[in-house]
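Final paragraph of the annual report: two paired records, presented back to back.
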Amino acid sequence: MLAATLVLSPGCSAVHDGQVAYKKGDYVGAISAWQPLADQGDASAQYLIGLMHERGHGMPEDDALAAQWYTRAAEQNHPAAMNNLGILYQAGRGVERDVQKAHDLYARASDELLPDARSNLGVMYLYGIGVQQDRRKAAELFRFAALRGSDKGQYLLGLMYLTADGVPLNTREGARWITASAEQGNTLALFELAQLHEHGRGVVTSRHQAIRAYRRAAVKGHAGAQNNLAMLLLERNKPQDREQAMVWLEQAGAQGVAQAQYALGRLYAEPGETQDERAAVWWLTRAAEQGLRESLASLAVMYDHGRGTQVDPETAARLYARAADLDWPRAQHMLGMFYETGRGVEKDLPNAYRWYSLAAANGFEPAAAERDRLKFALPPEQQSRGDLLIQDWYDARGSAGTGITGNGIAEVQAR
């Protein structure tokens, strides 16, 4: 996290003038005020010029130059410069990564009582970065920072209470600190607060408050918030909410959120004013490329029926197969139908029996009838081959999550 406070040299009007210009977005004016002072050795001005280089305000973004200016200010014990330089060393941005230097810089800044530096030092103890892991010490550092107004410290302390990590579980206390951080505009805290309100953890369950917090985080570009906000808006089932939801899903999808891409694909595929089957195929493809099984199956439907693309049963079969391998029961059922009829694949009744059986075992009731029908129609040797295919499928997955071990075939057939 960048230190946001602009630390001013006492009585230095030029630094103040630069701050005024900065707040107005006049970065050139701010640099004009600060650069001469930085060249003359003013620590606050050196820190501020480093900040401009790091953020790319009024000049090209350049972490190496930022590190140089932060170093000059840190040599004069400027707390914010030490903190920001520590961030660069921890991440290896503009300097060679050195977590020990990062730790030492955070510690020096912490000695100057800089709350954000305490938060950053706490993160190192929380995860054992360059130090022996000590979650209780991390909680103490976060508490120090939180009590002094650090939104990062408040957020991290809140998470520790919510997860019983280094402190006893206390959802109300966790929610209290998350709320304090969110009120300062911390994006991660806003997202967490929205989830707390959505599920009623430590706070009153409130869809309204969840939407409000998700929206604030979404505006700041948080992809998860954009996706979750859209889902809550869609639940309200109003035309204007659907329009807003699609806008947020577009933004989340553009950031790579597979669930948002899948939801957009489904929305574009639905009949109505927004129907656009080519767009549906495009978004479903994006989610399918990430291995989302629901999207693989939905995309298979589009190829199977030529919606938004040419009819292509071979591609549909491949997509169903990928989703079926990910244990998606509808896809397993459809793949069984493809193997039974020879659509997109070579006709293979034992394989059809295999996929009907697996879909039925996953609770997809229509597949159970298909399985039973095919079971009695198959010659004994083909049924035995189907049984072996079922067992091979479970063996290849170690029976994970199925409750099926050595008698997998019998259990599948009984479901």
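The closing record of the year follows.
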Amino acid sequence: MVTFKMGQDTENEIVSKIQESKGYIRIAVFQMHSEVIFSALLVKAGQGVRIEICTLPYDSINSDVRESVVERFERLKNAGVSIHFLPWNVGDPERTTTAVGRWYAYHGKFMVTEKYAIIFSTNFLESDEIETFVIDDSTDLIQTLNEKFKWLVTTFCLISDDGQAGGFRKWIEEQIGMDEASRIFHLPDSIKSKTHENNWILHYPVGICKIKDKDYSGMYVTPFDARARNLYETIISLAEQFVYISTESFTDQDFCEFIIRQTRKKKIDIKILTGGTSMDFAERITDMYSNLIACGVAIYVPNSPLHAKLLVTEKFVLIGSVNLNNMNLGFNKGRMYWRSNIETIYVTSDLVSSAKSDFETIIDASRKIEEVHIVKESKKLGGFFSDYDLKSQDSAKQMVARFIVNERIQGKAEILRLAGYVNLYVKRVHPRTKLVTKMDMLSCLVLHILSESQQTQSLIQQRLLIYGSIEEINQALNGMITIGMIEENNGEIKLDLAYFLNGEL
């Protein structure tokens, strides 16, 4: 039996599976704060159930709750629960405000008992966020999760005499040699504390970060079983009908451009559910989201806190711990290395209907990101009215803010439409070369103008004079008339509809 859920109050489902266990419970999770989860585990430990937890060290816990959470862990340890800390850090947190002296690698989330394999997005915090999970009683998946847990512990957790955790460094040294390994096993310049100097890697050799090119279903610890970016992009590329994405944060510019390319290649329904905020990249994501909306992608922000990480197409469901940011997806550091967090991803083709239904239910209760941006813009209007010694109603401010947001999106859409004309024009007029000339651009600007309405030659000249001379504009017009792309009739120039209806452009 397989159960999928996306929504709030997912913790109770997890607790019920903990309560059913009579043999063992193994949890690998980024963070665990919930008193309800701790209490359930404490009861099972008292009943003789073997419990192991793989998580981050205590200093990863937010300072405002650290003392109470540490006390809960210590109670579990005193009850015989094995706590494995995964102390490895990866990368360089120089450009973020969310790391102070550490940049822990592990961000995955799963649990396995003798009865169930459970993959989820939750961190077991004291909050009721929108989450997602899969519960499966398949013996094969249970065995797989047990193997993944053991691998995490032996590779990254068990402390050796030299102060390093697990066999991770030895594994890397076997791949690239001790001299090359010494270049990547050290603290970045931005980290001054020596606390983690034995357990820090800047990035991984590409040879241990696999690229999956077939048989996508299964459980992955990324980037070692597969690169998260590769999995996401491949599954989206295979989609033909729809792509639904849920991500707490979406700040990755490259992934945004990947989605835009998909909208140009095929007509497909793409919906993204996101928290819509970023501490470090607020301006970037506003620009990214506007570009996506201009391409027809619908972006929503739920009215409840979102933490679910999910990708649904008509072919696959992907659930796990990956947000659409640089470190979760991973990225190349030159040709030899790959940098990313350690994430968990489960891919299946069996849950499409239920995942699609739950996602659409959340979407129906969410706001479009444009409405969120309108509220933000209305608070930033500054002197729009006051510079003229005017007062304004809130509704007037919102109208101006709506105008700003709409114009920003429409501006992006115009640029994308022009880019489409350039691509198609070059393919039609000189398909053997990809060089775009000034005359090509003038011709495409003519197409852009005429797509609005027919125009006189003089009006076209007036609009294009900032881009070229009268002679160049006339040359572009005559050339397009000659090849039948546009036509002139009684002083009016318009697109040749027959040319377009024949699929030439």
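The mean pLDDT is 92. This concludes the annual technical report; the extension proposal builds directly on these records.
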